[in-house]
User: Fold these one by one.
Assistant:
Number 1:
Amino acid sequence: MVFNVCLNYLQNTHDAEEVTQDVFVKIHGKLDSFKAESELKTWVYRIAVNQSLDFLKAKKRKKRFGFHLFIRTDVNEDSDAFSSFDHQGVHLENKEATEHIFKAINQLPERQKTALLLKLMEELSQNEIAEVMELSLKAVESLLSRARANLKEILKNNEG
């Protein structure tokens, strides 16, 4: 579950494994502070989402300042994320279509992306998404609606 959440955000097996490990270290360190105000599963999802977002922000910051997490001259930046993409259920013949869809999802605002990934990839209910994201059910419904509309527009624009 944690690895899949990380993989859906990072779209790179190596990065997802690294962040998954960070998530479990964080869970272990904070387990005594878990107040059981929500389900343990929801709490773990929240940590996985936040760790993934933090990793992406740190990676962007490093790139902005000219530092790279991976120094690779043989692979360009766009293809690197999908060169090791091996999400369960994505077969080689679907890799190009999956890459296209994930590039579009990555263009969504952060909260829309989170809601959409939790709904489509993790198959969480809107109530569970609301708990993970600490939002009202109405806010989640709105985010999902806007995410779908924006994704449709992005995909349409990318085709033309």
Number 2:
Amino acid sequence: MAVPGLDHIVVDVAGDMDRGEAAYRALGFTFTERTTHSLGSSNHLSMFDTDYLELLNPGNGARPDLAGFTDGLNGLVFAMEDAAAVHADQAARGVPVNPVQNFSRDAKLPNGMAGTARFNTVRLPPRSVFDGRVYFCEHLTPELVWCPELKIHASGALAISRVALACGNPDTVAATFDKMFGDGAVARAADADAPHILQAGKVAVELWPRAALAKTLGPAMPDTTGRGDMMALFGVRVKSLAETADYLRGAGISTLPGRDGSIIVPPETALNVAVEFTD
């Protein structure tokens, strides 16, 4: 199958949703009302044009697949439209996938719509690609997830632009993605200190050598203690970087300079995640 676009990324709040919500609202993200999945976990969503950020609370042991994760990025989720077909494709490629999972949650949107939002997922076992979770998500009721009012953010956020992983061996992670999506799905870097790239729609999933990413990010590098290959940074494209910088400054949020003029919120402010804003 061709590499699908990114559906969303997940930040685990390690059991403290109030703290996670407060941290990310301070960064200028608008969120949906808190709700509980039929699986037992709870979440908030911050919606962009075609993708979104999810804050996830494991829910007191209700989700064994979330066990053992600390604060930080732990979910890379691809979009899909036919769960049965994706499951069959991945299984035929020899990719370990769990059975199609259907679940739901209540939804109440600012435009007055309300109902039960329903989803299908095809999940790889946790930590089978990196120290986190990779899966596919099919939205059966997209009208209960996206609405214009939820896509207005004080930070000016428009879309996810990149996700950077810190890898002990990027070739190993790249080989798994090639198995999922076909040989050559991941563009290999010629420079040993540059990232391999999996292009998921408009989002670059970057597989960095851990030391090289740490050198590039400097003080913006998340704490990797006790972690294997891990998601370290996500980038967000904004309407105006100058306006975003003004907003963060006014909110008392310290930032660091990033590549190509971007600004980065350091991990101690964002649950051990480097959050990059760029235009």
Number 3:
Amino acid sequence: MHIAIAGNIGAGKTTLTKLLAKHYKWEAQLEDVVDNPYLDDFYNQMERWSFNLQVYFLNSRFRQVLQIHQSGRDIIQDRTIYEDAHIFAPNLHAMGLMPNRDYENYKSLFDLMESLVKGPDVLIYLRSSIPNLVKQIHKRGRDYENSISIDYLSRLNERYEAWIHGYDKGKLLIIDVDPLDFVENPEDLGTIINIIDAEINGLF
């Protein structure tokens, strides 16, 4: 079984991925932010490094999806291959931070990769307001995220909502995380687990 968690920067994807992996005894596939050689450069000079960063993420996630399908294990994935292609790359292009030829090259590469993989069995989308995202980003205190603007987060949120509205790759669960604190409050985590249980039991 392949479960994936999607959501904007600061929505709580990585934290929830780890908590659900522990609860269900699933294997967690996390986003590569620690060893990513482009992140610092990207946030300091977006236009120069946008294409490099997006190709790095695309390569990393394509490799993850292939490994997930080949493993035969129950795996929960932090962020999907679709988010880069439908949200982050087009947003950079629209903001003038990724040139046309790079964007077309990127889209062509994604289309090829997408034709070779299938979507997750269940996608969990963490819906969050901008104030909540900002609060969570500040709380975790990653240096390279200090320069993220509210305008940038807002643009991403709009694209997330548009993508989710037309999502057709498999089962979709939408969880509004604004009123939840699944780290500090076990009842909130239990609420999410109950929602997932109902979906999984209906699926398998």
